Amino acid sequence: MLFVALAWLLAVNLLTLVRFSSDKRRAIAGARRIREAELLWLAALGGTPGAFAARRLFRHKTRKQPFSARLTLIAAIQIGAALGWLVLGS
């Protein structure tokens, strides 16, 4: 079970990085963009570390509101859930 969870997290974070990179390239080219909802769903599915890494690496969506607030909220909920799981699971 742990292997599956780690594989999922690796895959969703890599996909999140790729999608943020693609959106940045599309923004530069003036092409059709990737919906913010898709980027936020990827974060909600476990790709939050990838989303924050991509924002820093590509300097993309760093000041965009309400996107930044929503991504931060997703991260806070995930951290709270992880802490709760650790405390209650012990």
Provide an overview of this structure.
By secondary structure, the protein is mainly alpha-helical. 82% of the residues lie in helices and 0% in strands. The protein has 3 helices and no strands. It is globular. The two termini are 18 Å apart. The model has no long low-confidence stretch (mean pLDDT 95).
Secondary structure topology:
Elements: H1 2-29, H2 36-58, H3 67-89
Helix pairs in contact: 1-2, 2-3
Give short descriptive properties of this protein:
90 residues, 3 helices
Largest sheet: none
* Uncertain stretches: none
Silhouette = globular
Chain-averaged pLDDT: 95
Number of β-strand runs: 0
Distance between the termini: 18 Å
- Strand residue content: under 5%
> How are helices and strands ordered from N to C?
HHH
Outline:
The protein is mainly alpha-helical.
